[in-house]
UniProtKB/TrEMBL annotation:
The lineage of its organism: Bacteria, Bacillati, Actinomycetota, Actinomycetes, Micrococcales. Pfam families: Ank_2 (PF12796). It comes from Brachybacterium fresconis. This is Ankyrin repeat protein. InterPro entries: Ankyrin_rpt, Ankyrin_rpt-contain_sf. ANK repeats lie at residues 52-84, 85-117. Gene3D superfamilies: Ankyrin repeat-containing domain. Keywords: ANK repeat, Repeat. The keyword Cytoplasm does not apply. It comes from the Bacteria.
């Protein structure tokens, strides 16, 4: 089948997908790990993004939900997936000043030098001294 002959989703199917995405992204914002992780474990996309390109992991990180960030990363959530503005989850955390979430992202392999501005640049701009110290311990990724 080519793209022109594949069945197109119905309006009801489109609405169901939108409802699922809304539920997942709201669960990420509010820290509702039970709901979000259950959906991911059932096959929902872990790197689902909102209209601004913010992934569930980005939203969980930005709103300070460290354990949820850890669990999303363990399920394949991309800790460096930038939003449409080029900001990484770690840069969002540097802006907010949430040290615990910064540690969680770094432990999961987040690169403080990715994104525009990078997490390190963001932390410096907002004078997040504890986060700067953490980020400066992480060398730039090769490649």
């Amino acid at each position: 089948m080519n793209e022109d002959t594949q069945p197109q989703p119905t309006a009801a199917e489109d609405e169901a997908v939108i409802a699922l995405a809304t539920t997942m992204l709201e669960a990420a914002r509010s820290g509702d790990a039970a709901t979000l992780l259950s959906l991911v474990d059932q096959g929902a996309p872990v790197n689902l993004r909102d209209g601004g390109g913010n992934s569930a992991l980005m939203l969980a990180a930005y709103h300070g939900h460290s354990e949820l960030v850890r669990e999303l990363a363990a399920r394949g959530g991309d800790v460096d997936l930038a939003n449409d503005r080029g900001q990484s989850p770690l840069a969002g955390v540097a802006f907010k000043g949430t040290v615990e979430v910064a540690r969680t992202l770094l432990a999961a392999g987040a690169d403080p030098h990715r994104g525009t501005p990078s997490a390190l640049e963001t932390a410096r701009y907002f004078e997040r001294t504890e986060i700067i110290a953490l980020l400066e311990q992480t060398p730039p990724a090769e490649g």
